[in-house]
Amino acid sequence: MLWAWEKAVLVLVILATVAAFVLPVYLRYRLVRQGRPESRGGGAGGRLADTLTKVFLQRCTLKDERRFTGLMHVFIFYSALTFDTMTVNHTLEGFFDGFYLFGRTRFGLFFSFLVDAMAVAVLIGVAFFIVRRFIVRPKAYQTTPWDSAAIYFFLIAVTLSYMYFEVFAVVRHPEAARLSFLGKYLAGALAVPGLPEANLAAHFRISWWLHILLVYGFIAYVPYSKYFHMLTGPLNVFFRGRCSSRRLPPVDIEKSEVFGIEKTADFTWKDNLDAFACMECGRCQDACPASTSGKPLSPKMILVNQEKRLLAERRKLLERRRDDLSPLFPETYTDGEIWTCTTCGACQHVCPVEIEHIRKIVGVRRSEVLMQGRFPQELNAFFRNLETNFNPWGLGFSKRADWAAGLDVPVLSEKKSADVLLWVGCAGSYDEQGIQVVKAMVTLLRKAGVDFGILGTEEKCCGDSARRLGQEYLYQTLAEENLGLFLNYGVKKIITFCPHGYNTFQNEYPQLLPLLAAFSGDDKERLAGIEVMSHVSWINGLLGQGRLKLKPGAGGRAAYHDPCYLGRHNGIIKEPRDILSRLNAAAPAELENSREHSFCCGAGGGMMWTEEKLGRRINHLRTEEIIRSGAAAAATACPFCLNMLRDGLKDKDRPDILVKDIAQLVAESLEA
Fold this sequence. Notes:
With 672 residues, the protein is mainly alpha-helical. The chain contains 29 helices and eight strands. It is 55% helix and 4% strand. It has a four-stranded parallel β-sheet. Strands 6-5-7-8 form a four-stranded parallel β-sheet, with helices on both faces.
C-alpha cells in the first residue's frame, strides 16, 4: 500500500512514538519502585481473576450510583480495546497492501461490524462526558480541564479519522466490508463509489496517514494524561489490599527511623502506584462526608497532589536525596484535609481502581504526631487522658466498672475464666448512652444463659482512635496491655458492641502480634485464635437458635443507620436488618445512603475528640436523612453513632425521633 519512503516514515513514526511513550512510563515505573517496600504478594490466581472481572467486565465502574456514567465509560473502554486491535491492523496494512488481521473469516467480518459499532459508542460516550464536564460541571470534575479536553479531542479525532478512512476502504476492499454498516452508509451518502480511481486512491492514502498519525499521537500523549490509568488501573486492582480500608499499615516502633509520611520518599511503592492509577473521576470526593459537608478534604486531590509532588521531585527521589525533599505538610496537604477525615472508607469503597486513601491521610497524621508533635490542640487532652486513665474522657480508671454496681456482673479477676469476654469499652464504661447499651447486653447474655465475664477496672481503651489520629505508639502500648490480659485469662471469644473495638480486635491486633516481643510464639498463636464477634452478629445468631425469644410485634419500624466500621469496613450488613425484621415482622426503613454506601455519622477516625470547625456538621447531614425518611425511630449498632445521631436530632429540634442501639431494642422486646 505504501511506497518505500512512506514505509520508512512510518517506521520513524513508530519509533518516535515508542520513545515518547516508553520514557515517561519508565520514569513513573522508577518512581513507583522508589517507594518504601511493602508486601503485596500471595493469592495471585484470585487477584488475577478478580482483576479480570472488575476491569475487563467493567464491574469497577458500574458498582455505585453513577451507573449511567459508568455505562458511558464502558462504551469508551471497549471502544479503546477494539481500536487498539484495529491500530495493529491499520499499521500492518501500511506495510502489506490489503492486509486484514483476521483474514476474510466470519470473525473478521464480525470484527469489522464491531469496530463500526464501537465508533458510534465512543462518540456517544465522549459527547456525554463533554456535556458533563464542561456544561454541567459537577464539583468532582472541576480539575485538569485541559487534560480532559485533550483526551476528548483525541478520542473524537481518532474515531472520525477512522470513519474517513473506512469510507474509502469499503470501496477499495468491498469483500472485507460486508458488515461495515457505518462505512457503507457513509460511502453511499457521500457518493464515494462514483469518484474517479485517482481520487479514491488519494483519499485512501490521506485518510490512512491522518488516522495513523492521530493514533500514534494519542499513544504518545497517554503517559502524560489521566488516560494513563488504562495501564496502571488494572495493576492497582491486582495489587489491592484485601483489608486496606479496615486495617492500617503496621509500624515497627523499635526498628523504624521514620514514622508516617513526612515526605514523598516515605510513601510505599503501592502508594505511588495509587497516585499514577487515579483516573480523577471524583467518585471518592462525591462519597466523602467531609467533602460533602463543605470541608477542604477531597480524597481525589490527595492523590492528584501526590502525583504532582512525585513528578516535581523526581530527580531528588531517584537520587535518594531525602533530606532535600520538602515536607508534604502543610505545603501539599493542609490541616483542613488531614484533620477532617473520619476514615469511614466511603472513598475506597467507590473507587473503580481500588485506591487506598485512608493510609495516606493517617500516614501524614503519624508523621505530624510522632515526628513533629503537631496536631489539633484539643487532642492534647485526648492523648493525655488515654495515657493516664486509659479512656478518652480522663475519668478515673478505677471507676471503669462503676456502671455495673448492683448488677452482679462477673469480673474475670474474680471469676478467672469465662466462655465469653464481654468487652465493655470506653463508651460502655463512662458514657451515659453507652452504659444503657451494655446493661442491655448483660440482660441478653443472662437470658441466653451465656457464661460471660468482664475485665472491669483492668480493661483499657482498645486504641482505635489513637491509631487513626496517628498516635501509633500509644495504640501499641494499649494493645499490648489488653493482649496480655486476654492471654492471662485464657480468653477465647470476645463480644463487643462497639464496631471500632470489633475492627481493632478482629483486624488490627492480629496484625500487631508479630511485632510484639513480649509474647512467645505459642502465646501469639493463642491470641491470634481468639474469636471476635460484633454484638449484632451474636444477637442474630441467638435469635436464630431460639435462645432469645421476642414478643410478637414487639418493636416499631425504625430506620437503620449502618455504622461505617460495621457495615462498609467489615461487611456486617444483613445481620442487623434480620434482627430489626424480627422485631417488626418487616424490613427496616432504608435511608438514602445505606448498606455499603452508608453516610458517616462524623465521629470516626478520632473526629469524635476534635472540634468540627469547618463546613457543616456531618451528623446534621445524616440526621436530615433520618428526618426525610419519615421514620418514627432510628436504630444503630455503634456508641459513637448513637451519640452523634441523638445530638443531631436534638439540634434539629426532633427529639421525638428516638435513637437506640439494636441491643436495647431486643432487650426491651424479650419475652418475659
